[in-house]
Amino acid sequence: MARAYTPGLMVSALTRHRTRRLLPIAGDVLVKEGDAVQARQIVAQTFIPGDITPLNMAKLLSMPPGDVPECMLKKVGELVTRGEVLARTKGIFGMMRAEYKSPIGGTLETISSVTGQVILRGEPTPLQVAAYLPGLVVSVLPNEGCVIEADVAFIQGIFGVGGEAFGRIRMACRKHDQDLTPDLFQPDMRDAVVVGGARVTHEAILKAKAVGTAAIVTGGIDDEDLEKFLGYNVGVAITGSEQVGLTLILTEGFGEIAMAERTFTLLTAHEGREASVNGATQIRAGVMRPEILIPRTGAEQSATAFAPPGSGYLEVGVPVRVIRDPYFGRLGAVSALPSEPAVLASGSRARVVEVKFASGESAIIPRANVELIEG
């Protein structure tokens, strides 16, 4: 049977998922292998060194650089508090002394008798890493972090903004093709992961922020509304670090596009359950997709078959999503894989796939313009 390799998005009712929780610099790991952890539990922590503040003490106290070390009231490595006297001149016969008070709190890092410069290092900033996914610690990386494993319902989106968020799933829309509008956000959706159907508007996002919603998961958004929300054009940058008040995940793409029924049905089945979501997206090399993770219990696992690992192979019968115009966002199944390249409307030649949509319509589409729906 003819087949080809192509990337795809995972939509699975039950799969075993691992997540690496790592510190950006060496620090302390607070869990051990075999520990059960909760999503918001801190599993590792470290301290980011503070900014440096150079001080030209020789100029500040009008003295030769060589005299600076003996006028310092603090030694290298000692802590300094904001407003504390850092240096004092001897004055004339013990009188008319000049002194300098520290502008910041931190640590005295260096004193130079050559330049008369003093460098203060600001107070370190604590950095903590949460488990993100409730599960079992299966591996500990000393001074770096850990690996957590759990059985989850797993949904990958196509694009997102905003970082990690947690909350109970709330269905705002009752149909997969219903737009997510401002009137659908209620006060009791505070800290919730709100699921829409089709397009979310900029006004709806503003209402969600006012309500205090943790995250929005929906089918699509107009690029103009996304730009209004962010305040800039996101381009092809890596997302996930935006400080915009909530996390937004699109399951299908941009424009008037409905969430896939399969995805909507899966989310509906888990309404009221806690979910961990992350909007981080990277389109280029090292592809990273936004995700929704819903932990599953032992009883639920026995009633649901585990999804086998995705093969990544494009073959007759597998479900796919079209990711380019003129069929952007439409779902169908592979009906044929012609072995020879075809001439496209642009005049170029490319390997193609024949996709049959739910409506019964078929279309010939470049293989690069489709992605698998795995799970």
Topology diagram in text:
Blueprint lengths: L2 E3 L2 E15 L5 E2 L6 E2 L4 E7 L3 E5 H4 L7 H4 L7 E2 L4 E4 L10 E3 L4 E6 L5 E6 L2 E6 L4 E7 L3 E12 L2 E3 L2 E8 L21 E3 L6 H10 L3 E7 L1 H8 L16 E8 L6 H9 L4 E5 L12 E5 L2 H6 L9 E3 L3 E4 L8 E6 L5 E2 L5 E2 L1 E6 L4 E5 L3 E5 L1
Parallel strand pairs: 2-29, 16-17, 17-18, 18-19
Antiparallel strand pairs: 1-22, 2-14, 3-5, 4-13, 5-12, 6-11, 7-10, 8-9, 10-11, 13-14, 14-21, 15-19, 16-20, 20-21, 23-24, 23-29, 24-27, 25-26, 27-28
Tally the beta strands: 29
- Beta fraction: 35-45%
Q: Mean pLDDT, as a whole number?
A: 89
Helix fraction bin: 10-25%
Which CATH class of the largest domain?
Alpha Beta
What is the gyration radius calculated from CA atoms? 28 Å
Instruction: Characterize the largest beta sheet: strand count, sense, and whether it forms a barrel.
Output: 16 strands, mixed
Structural class, by secondary structure, is mainly beta
Architecture of the largest domain, according to CATH?
3-Layer(bba) Sandwich
- Helical stretch tally: 6
Number of separate structural domains:
3
Descriptive overview:
It is a single chain. The protein is mostly beta strands. The chain has 3 domains: 52-122, OB fold (Dihydrolipoamide Acetyltransferase, E2P) (Beta Barrel), CATH 2.40.50; 158-289, 3-Layer(bba) Sandwich (Glucose Oxidase, domain 1), CATH 3.50.30; 313-374, SH3 type barrels. 11% of the residues lie in helices and 41% in strands. The protein contains 6 helices and 29 strands. The chain has helices at 57-60, 68-71, 202-211, 223-230, 261-269, 298-303; strands spanning 3-5, 8-22, 28-29, 36-37, 42-48, 52-56, 79-80, 85-88, 99-101, 106-111, 117-122, 125-130, 135-141, 145-156, 159-161, 164-171, 193-195, 215-221, 247-254, 274-278, 291-295, 313-315, 319-322, 331-336, 342-343, 349-350, 352-357, 362-366, 370-374. The strands form 6 sheets. It has a 16-stranded mixed beta sheet that branches.
